[in-house]
Amino acid sequence: MVWINMSVERIRQIQRYSAKRNQDPQLSTDQVAIEEPLEIQLDGEPLAVIMRTPGNDLELVAGLLLTEELIQHSDDLLMLEHCRDPEETNAGNIVKVKLSESCLERIHLSKNTDRMTRTFLTSTSCGVCGKQSIASLHASTPPFPNYESTCIEDVALFSEKMKTHQTLFDKTGGIHAAALFAKSGELILLREDVGRHNAVDKCIGSLVLTEQLPIDNCSLMVSGRTSFEIVQKALVARIGTIAAVSAPSSLAIELAQESRINLFGFVRENGLNIYASERLESQA
After folding, report:
1. Burial, 174: exposed, middle or buried (Cβ in 10 Å; 0-12, 13-18, 19+)?
2. Taking Cα atoms as reference points, which of 203, 223, 215, 209 lies closest to residue 239?
3. Is-contact 31 49, C-beta < 8 A?
4. Rounded to two decimals, what is the model's pTM?
5. Which residue has the higher pLDDT, 85 or 19?
6. Distance (Å, rounded) from C-alpha 93 to C-alpha 89?
7. What is d(CA 213, CA 194) in angstroms, rounded to the nearest whole number?
8. Which of 48, 106, 222, 282 is 20 to 30 A from 69 in CA distance terms?
9. Is residue 222 a contact partner of residue 199, using CB atoms and an 8 Å limit?
10. How far is CA 95 from CA 58, 59, 80, in A?
11. Nearest to residue 150, comparing CAs of 73, 87, 218, 88?
């Protein structure tokens, strides 16, 4: 059996300085979040390398494959597992994938090709063209017919509810979270990772692997800001509401508006900003 390291934080020796104590830095220890590469292999060939926090790796890969439109549902995954080669010293950081023939045909892959002909959608860091990117995305993933009805009082509580379950953030202070909430406001699941996008993919991947997609009236809450890519992932997974602790980017707002996805930012218990929405329910 291949042993897989599932540690998510490590103790590091540091020097701690306190201005209040007016003394030299003192030796101490700190818990830091682990960041390691995860290699995804498709039919034994490298597909992508992701920097992530170990844990829920299969969910991460399933979510990434879905949100990058390489698969449409769990039936497309003929194999999804960690490398089991006892000679591979890095087996815990390799996930092997096999896709169905219909899936391979759909994304223009063949077993005889030695490279992918379909590339991942460009992220904001690569300088995408806004309108062109949105039009391209909508060509394969249509907008929602209408905005989902949403209770803003429930959304305003998402941040506090998420914080109570962010165990890794409490330990390290250096990790992101994504959470899914039901229409009732109940937290369905939460995942943490050094990458915001990874945390989102882990949540969506959990829905893929448990065959819960499509899921109705589900909201996504993320720590940090909302980028175009996060809205893209929600659209592909058919999640109609996104809330975030911080601000959205301009292109994230455009995509949410044109996709009819509710988009909320600066979500706090005492309020929030509404960037995209139409019909809002109130408890009052």
Report:
1. middle
2. 215
3. no
4. 0.84
5. 85
6. 9
7. 25
8. 222
9. yes
10. 7, 11, 7
11. 218
For 141, the 3-state DSSP assignment is coil
DSSP-assigned letter for residue 227: -
Alpha helices (H) along 107-211: 130-140, 152-155, 158-163, 167-172, 196-209
CATH class of 139-281: alpha beta
User: What residues pair up with 32 in beta bridges, in sequence order?
Assistant: 10
Q: Cβ(264)–Cβ(273) under 8 Å?
A: yes
Q: Check residue 91 and give left, alpha or beta (phi > 0: left; psi -120 to 50: alpha).
A: alpha
Residues marked active site are found at 126
Domain boundaries, given as residue ranges, for the chain: 139-281
Give residue 129's pLDDT band: very low, low, confident or very high (50, 70, 90): low
Do residues 45 and 69 touch, judged by C-beta distance below 8 A?
Answer: no
224 secondary structure, DSSP code: S
Angle separating helix axes 228-237 and 196-209, nearest 10 degrees:
0
How many Cβ atoms are within 10 Å of 81's Cβ, its own excluded?
A: 14
Determine phi and psi for 47, rounding to 5 degrees.
Answer: -110, -45
The DSSP call for residue 232 is: H
Specify whether the CB–CB gap between 180 and 219 falls below 8 A. Answer: yes
User: Which residue is associated with the tokens 């995408």?
Assistant: 128
